[in-house]
Amino acid sequence: MTRTVAVLFNPAAHRGLAAQQRPAIEAALHEAGLQAQWFVSPAAGQVRPLAARAVAQDPQRPLLIAGGDGTIGEAVNGIADALGRHATPWPPVGIFPLGSANDLVHNTGLPHAPRDVVRLVLRGRVRRMDVLEVNGILFVNNAAVGAEPYISMIEKRIRRVRGVWRYALAAFKGWWDNPSWFMRLRWDDGHAEGPMALISVGNWPRTGGVFYPTPGADGFDGRLTFVYAQAMSRWRLGPRLLRATSPAGGHVRMSGVVQRHATRLEVHCEPPAPLHADGEIYTSSGAQFVFTVHAAWLPLFWP
Questions:
Q1: Beta pairing class for 126-134 and 280-301
Q2: DSSP state, 158?
Q3: Which of 6, 25, 75, 130 sits at a 20 to 30 Å CA gap from 264?
């Protein structure tokens, strides 16, 4: 394989702690004899154009993404910006997980240590993962409408707590507020409507470091998996939220919570509701959302 790679580095990931990991990544690449061109994000919102620039320079060069789940999501959109939505093949992608939760790496079982990531790159084997889309935004792990992004907005305001505890604290506050919306859903072979707390759409099961809202999701099955929860009292919601912290996904077997698989999902919200994709808030007030799946789009370096 080529001995040259592009490294897309987001030092702001994990509230700035990712910056400390650059020497370890540089050492792992150097030991492996890989020449790296670094693309370092100077500020929030710059990862996507940087990824597009890196890929446009050499569409076949491996792209190694160093950051959290939001960084990965922005990078995937940048790849599409550079190559077009339906251009193939995309460059092979490796991940140095430097975020707070690193949900995608956890879900896929990919390695965390820089040397182990580099070993995958040297081996050169890839597996093509599905990429999901909502309203023109690509995402690879999870997106949601309603309570989940509502909680994400709370989480981003918390400054004194780090790691998964920040997500847990935000979830408690979201549970207490207990927001709801009237939603109309339509998917491949079904529909539903009524007062709902959230719609969670997963390429994989885990999000937020501790929650498994879509336990049946598989990023290689060519489908999106979604869960919708009816509006209910916080005292009924509490046990379902607690069960959603287990990989077993017991919440989807409780009344008022439904899990489905599809290739397309349309959601209409009254009043408008917030949306996040891969942890990034894209709107705090949207009325119509369309989710689709692009099967086997993203070639990941794979064990």
A1: antiparallel
A2: -
A3: 75
Instruction: Give dist(CA 145, CA 113) in Å, integer.
Output: 33
CA-angle at 51, arms to 89 and 10, nearest 5°: 135
**What are the backbone dihedrals phi and psi of residue 190, each rounded to the nearest 5 degrees, phi first?**
-165, 175
pLDDT (average), residues 236-254? 93
CA pair distance 12, 28, nearest whole angstrom: 21
Q: Is the pLDDT of residue 296 over 70?
A: yes
Give the domains, in start order, of the chain with CATH numbers: 4-124 (3.40.50.10330), 139-295 (2.60.200.40)
Contacting residues for 59 by C-beta, under 8 A, at least 6 apart = 82, 83, 91
pLDDT-derived band at 217 (thresholds 50, 70, 90) equals very high
Q: Is 164 left (phi over 0), alpha (psi -120 to 50) or beta?
A: alpha
More confident residue, 171 or 50: 50
Nearest one of 139, 162, 118, 140 to 16, comparing CA atoms: 162
Please report, as a single letter, which amino acid is at residue 255: S
Q: How many angstroms separate the Cα of 215 from the Cα of each of 89, 130, 226, 238? A: 30, 16, 9, 18
- Residues 47-74 have pLDDT tens digits of 999 999 999 999 999 999 999 999 999 9
Rounded mean pLDDT, 2-31: 93
Return the DSSP state at 155: H
Start-to-end C-alpha separation, the chain: 16
Looking at this protein, which amino acid is placed at residue 294?
Answer: H
